[in-house]
Amino acid sequence: MKVYVIAFTKKGTILAEKICQRLEKAMCFSMKVSQDDIEIVTSLEKWTQRAFVEAEGIVFVGACGIAVRAIAPYLKDKYQDPAVVVTDEKGQFAISLLSGHIGYGNALTKKVAEITNGTPVITTATDINGVFAVDVWVKENGFLYLKQEKAKKVMKEISATLLEGKTVGFDSMFYYNKLPKGLVATRDCEIGISVSIYKQSKKFQQTLALIVPVVHIGIGCKKDTSFEEIEQSVFSVLEEENIAIEAIAAVATINLKQNEKGLLTFCQSYQKHLNIFSAEELSNVKGDFTASEFVLEKTGVDNVCERAALCSAQNGKIIVSKKVKNGVTVALAMKTILLSFS
Question: 2 to each of 11, 93, 222, 245, 327, how far by Cα in Å?
Fold first, then answer.
């Protein structure tokens, strides 16, 4: 976490430097002191604007009022704003001021308080009431959602429901450990959380549909297959299986195809990592595959797409066997995971 720490007095700068020494990727700034490891600041307005762009966390060593006035012009929302923490120049209190959950402001506050031997001040309702924080859980696990604005509203409703002492339904296609207080493994709730890989997975009247990126696409293709042909083939399979593109963790193929322009363009366009495997690596994958003598003759392995998908998924399981679309072979494998709430 890249953190910018700024102080406004000489005494505060000493504490700011101490905090930076204990935090990884921290930079120290001061409006009073300039030395090798401390950058002087002449305009708090310009510095704050820069910090909001460059840093993931900001620590003000000084009064809350200074921090509030400094950050006010740059506030967007908790999904974009950096974590902001304020500590007095004696380090007696560390206050989580902004992005406590999703921006890890509360975690940064606790760390600063630990460094200064002070008291962390956290005011988010779910924390002080010991209630499951769904937004934190979503971010920490790297889950995605299809309709962001709607999902944000439902997350707020889930937190409000839990704070009222009511239950929230939970439905998952994955194994999971003990559910936190307030979540119940049932669809008999008005509001709930659905965890899957599917585009359409509305299980409740109000559903927070979370997508887990655990699906790996294995692709085999002829030389000079175009981006459009690969794109159409992949999406044809995803559409048939109701699988969201957001659920795709990576694309995989044999090393003979690692320089195929159409395949590389597809991965770049959809920001998917391309995993490359040799014929030997693919041959060593255990499983029941759709063998092809022609593919064996051309590549040295009897099946590329299924084996590559399974290899990329670290020997999870095939969920869609080889399908041929416009000369492109596509198979899907899913990595085995266990959902955790701790």
Answer: 23, 22, 45, 30, 47
